[in-house]
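Aim 2 progress update. The chain analyzed this quarter is reproduced below.
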Amino acid sequence: MTVRTCLIVDDSRIIRKVARRIVEGLGFEVDEAADGAEALIYCNSLLPDVVLLDWNMPVMDGLTFIRRLRELPGGLAPKVLFCTIETQPERIAEALAAGADEYVMKPFDGEILQAKLAEVGAI
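Predicted structure tokens:
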């Protein structure tokens, strides 16, 4: 069986911890990054199958990260789920236009995350 990998990108250690527990429970190997710049360095050496991405972070925000990720060789492959408190339809449209595969509202739980991952074909 192939090991599926997930990169959790969020400046909140608590959010990363909660998301890690959920995603590991779904059989993923998990790595974490505290901002988009850290995540981009990670993706330059190893592309994960799935990225759970926060929008508002210091150093590099989620929108900038996803645009740069999609420009990398193979950067279209990871499924990217924006996990954020942004609720404005135009912001959601902006995230999807930038290359996000799906959108998850914070706070989320295991059921919601599992459903969204299934929707994008990650599980």
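The first strand starts at residue 4 and ends at 9. The chain has a mean pLDDT of 95. These observations will guide the mutagenesis experiments scheduled for the next reporting period.
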